[in-house]
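Researcher: Here's a chain I'd like modeled. Treat it as a single chain, no partners, no ligands.
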Amino acid sequence: MDTSFLGLVCRILAVAALALPAGMAAAQETTATVDTDGVQRIAIGGGSYFFRPSHIVARANQPLEIRLSVEPGLVPHRFVLEGPDGQPLADVSLGTQEQTLHLTLAPGTYPFYCPNRLLLFQSHRAHGMAGVLQVQE
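Model: Modeled as a single isolated chain. Structure tokens:
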């Protein structure tokens, strides 16, 4: 095998490996904004195997409004929010209309994800359509 071709392949693989952590950095945390009415607000958009933002920080024991939307497509999605104890707090079907959740949460880590799956394929959650809501004092 030509060493220049092998060198090119090695460089491509090295660049791809460096891109992985950079892609993970795109999942930086987003803090819910507090409006003049004292309500924290955040918008979460979904699509083909993603939720954005996927890491949200909010304040505990203050009203929180989560607006949910999904990109148009053929594959149906849902938004499930679990409490720190693993019990579902919300299970919302996502469609063309924006959905809004109103919550007041205690401190803790609240995972969210899409549990949908097609036949024998992995769930959307297993493909990365998941995130976490971190509620802090």
